[in-house]
Amino acid sequence: xxxxxxxxxxxxxxxxxxxxxxxxxxxxxxxxxxxxxxxxxxxxxxxxxxxxxxxxxxxxxxxxxxxxxxxxxxxxxxxxxxxxxxxxxxxxxxxxxxxxxxxxxxxxxxxxxxxxxxxxxxxxxxxxxxxxxxxxxxxxxxxxxxxxxxxxxxxxxxxxxxxxxxxxxxxxxxxxxxxxxxxxxxxxxxxxxxxxxxxxxxxxxxxxxxxxxxxxxxxxxxxxxxxxxxxxxxxxxxxxxxxxxxxxxxxxxxxxxxxxxxxxxxxxxxxxxxxxxxxxxxxxxxxxxxxxxxxxxxxxxxxxxxxxxxxxxxxxxxxxxxxxxxxxxxxxxxxxxxxxxxxxxxxxxxxxxxxxxxxxxxxxxxxxxxxxxxxxxxxxxxxxxxxxxxxxxxxxxxxxxxxxxxxxxxxxxxxxxxxxxxxxxxxxxxxxxxxxxxxxxxxxxxxxxxxxxxxxxxxxxxxxxxxxxxxxxxxxxxxxxxxxxxxxxxxxxxxxxxxxxxxxxxxxxxxxxxxxxxxxxxxxxxxxxxxxxxxxxxxxxxxxxxxxxxxxxxxxxxxxxxxxxxxxxxxxxxxxxxxxxxxxxxxxxxxxxxxxxxxxxxxxxxxxxxxxxxxxxxxxxxxxxxxxxxxxxxxxxxxxxxxxxxxxxxxxxxxxxxxxxxxxxxxxxxxxxxxxxxxxxxxxxxxxxxxxxxxxxxxxxxxxxxxxxxxxxxxxxxxxxxxxxxxxxxxxxxxxxxxxxxxxxxxxxxxxxxxxxxxxxxxxxxxxxxxxxxxxxxxxxxxxxxxxxxxxxxxxxxxxxxxxxxxxxxxxxxxxxxxxxxxxxxxxxxxxxxxxxxxxxxxxxxxxxxxxxxxxxxxxxxxxxxxxxxxxxxxxxxxxxxxxxxxx
Length: 888
Ligand code: ADP
Ligand code: MG
Ligand code: MG
Hints:
Layout: E1 5-9, E2 12-13, H1 20-35, E3 43-46, H2 48-56, H3 65-80, E4 93-98, E5 110-113, H4 119-127, H5 130-147, H6 154-167, H7 177-195, H8 203-217, H9 221-230, E6 239-244, E7 255-260, E8 272-277, H10 282-286, E9 292-293, H11 296-299, H12 307-310, H13 312-329, E10 333-340, E11 343-351, H14 356-368, H15 374-380, H16 383-390, E12 393-394, E13 402-405, E14 407-410, E15 413-419, H17 422-430, E16 435-439, H18 447-452, E17 455-458, H19 466-474, E18 478-480, E19 486-488, E20 493-496, E21 499-502, E22 506-510, E23 515-518, E24 523-524, H20 530-542, E25 546-550, H21 554-562, E26 568-572, H22 580-591, H23 595-620, E27 625-628, H24 643-652, H25 656-666, H26 678-683, H27 685-706, E28 712-716, H28 722-743, E29 750-755, H29 758-762, H30 764-767, E30 773-776, H31 778-786, H32 794-802, H33 819-833, E31 838-841, H34 849-858, E32 862-865, H35 870-887
Parallel strand pairs: 15-16, 16-17, 17-18, 25-26, 25-32, 26-27, 27-28, 28-29, 29-30, 30-31, 31-32
Antiparallel strand pairs: 1-2, 1-3, 3-6, 4-5, 4-6, 7-8, 7-10, 8-9, 10-11, 12-24, 13-23, 14-18, 15-22, 19-20, 20-21, 22-23
Bound molecules: adenosine-5'-diphosphate and magnesium ion (2 copies).
Adenosine-5'-diphosphate binds next to strand 4, strand 10 and strand 11.
């Protein structure tokens, strides 16, 4: 076998789909399709090794490459019966890039290579279609000049526009042979003027120029940025595929298009895509002409003839090939095809990008059909993507003022202020405002803006345009091709449906229906039934860890239960003092200067807390509820100096000076490391006794009301010394005994602690003597392990990320090596003292899939996360179990 070059075609290939590291995704799958006997124009792929060689050796090509390419080209001539160069029937090729992971539109491609002043005449004769031949030639010059010679394509657009104007043609398709000849002459003159040299006529020179240009495109700034964003190593390199051309621009019986084996927005099992009659590949994505749909339902409401009607026989064939490819790869396929005078050719296939909703529907359908296992279906869904499905859509019964329509390119709804540039979207985002990015079409430079915006609206492009593909990947709503909307970026206005809207005005886009709506609209919660529920059931069957939610309000508890939470892992009691009346009670406690005032405040707070807990227990009906005793420093509850202080003093009937005095007493230089958590409880035991009493009374009442036994888990925060916990636990036990006597009934409860300080992790064996459970408070544990404050760390951690000092923000994904080691140690030491100790995690990390995977390896019993993350955690926990099983 050769070293650098791998051929494919005529039912055979040197490589297979498994060779993507070497042949790139495109080259490997072309080889696979050729082996499957599918109609693939023959060609050969130069392996990625050549790209690595190129960059390792001062941008020079390997020695044998020239010879191997010559041989492969000779074989290609024999297979196609055409000759590369000046023969009667010229062989034309495309030179295509292809990396291991798809990098759509980032690398370069040249089509129709091999044409020159002589071979274009031969092509005109051989095809009997001179208009086609000259159209191909001018396309080639244009592409070659931009990709290989580095000229700006606007240079050529001007020339075409001039010829069109002179001839009175409106569309490219109206231009005749002589016009194209004029265009070509214009191109050649422009190139000679710009570069001081002639357009290369030698096909060999053209070929090597294109091969090197494709290799160089690996390092173009777009590609470099894309790789950084997607974690693609530079060392992978690109393959170069040289493939004999097939032509979709031979007239009305010819076409080019893109097909998905299923609908990538909904997952529906129907061929989905777009095509353009009489066109070449690049035209579909370029957005110059509006592509036609493939099928009738997709064409709904449009007057463009679907492929199903325009080319019924070819369409059936395409459908069959699509089915075969999907069954073969067991994945949604995104296919490029070209029809040359009625004959269908496949030019590319790859796993298709899809919305989160479609991903679930497809994975479930494939597992139910037996194409993949349930475990595989679970592995295929990105847990983080589920969150987008849980977010609201527009309420069905509100009045919708539709001010524009376009293609439903990515589902879901979003509201925001109109912005016309990605920079504006980022600015708004930075100031906490929401935007809808409105553009003629997006390009890779807009990725940042698309991230920053809530949704994307474009006036050009189809459902496979850049905007549509990227938005679906991000899970953002998108409407594309809203052709009736006019944008004036300079004046920062858009004209639609007789209205003029200025940047900053609020619109809503419905990406599921393709409607642009005026103003902000009420949204509703999605229904989590059907495939979503099925997938969640499968996840629940597999996962070992339980999933609880962090919740303190009844709304949060209800949402959490709706999303399948199996308990509350963190109820932050201080959050129950946010409303005005409660805040007042809290303040009178803090400001009390005698026992009577203090007792009155405590009595009032006890009644409020009891009512809160009762509500939570009723909603959770016997599921575990972990209640964390008061955690933050007291001064957070005092009014701000000035007017607020005056008002509070008046409401409480005290001297404002008393508030100022108290604020001064409680002032701390570093509150994060201050008098909070268990420290506060030791200073003011009466406060936690009040909380314990409220909890126990609520337990008794809830038990009576629901008939279900409640076992509260009382959690003491910020413990470092084992004796801190012992001190508090003794007090809680005394309260329990008193409540049991009052009610004449028995109470079951657990007392435990958070492990959120390094000392606690180290002394976990001792702490476990009075702790019946550990909950890892990973926000504080991360802060205290690193000695950095989460609230202030954004600036330098981003710098660390950018400069490659760290790979992940430790406040988002657990730092396994440091913080993780503490968790490991504490779990082990705790279990040594108390083998049946319950272990959980309640920090922000409890909803992060990578951190959940870590929790599985430590053997935690549950993770607790915010209500909207519960489904994410259920799936991530299932994946973690599957991964652990695979390890063993
Ligand atoms: P990208 O990776 O940007 O999609 P491709 O290499 O796939 O670039 O090529 C761009 C377009 O040209 C695609 O639509 C493709 O189908 C088309 N194309 C590539 N090679 C050929 C060929 N040999 N014959 C006809 N069309 C081709
Ligand atoms: Mg492609
Ligand atoms: Mg904490």
